Amino acid sequence: MTNHLANKMLLLQNKVRKYCRSPTGSMITGLYTKWRNLNTQIMAKYSEKASEKVEETMHEMKEGKLKSGSGKKVTSKKQAIAIGLSEARKAGAKVPRKKS
Length: 100
Fold this sequence. Notes:
Distance between the termini: 31 Å
Radius of gyration: 20 Å
């Protein structure tokens, strides 16, 4: 986490807390949105390794070389992304859990 972004985030958090206490908290939503955007810049959901794996699988799909588990050719972008994320998980990359 860079100091510059961390300082910005703390300032916004303090502003949000201040406006939450005031009776006219109309600026809360704007400040909260800014804070969420800063937070997402700091905390990435997917690692570089995961995005590289997805990029590789998309390239394979476009070339017609990507196969699913059953051996059929993959034609769906969504399926190619799912295969890439699955491979990234197996390789130990930072990828969120699968939703059951």
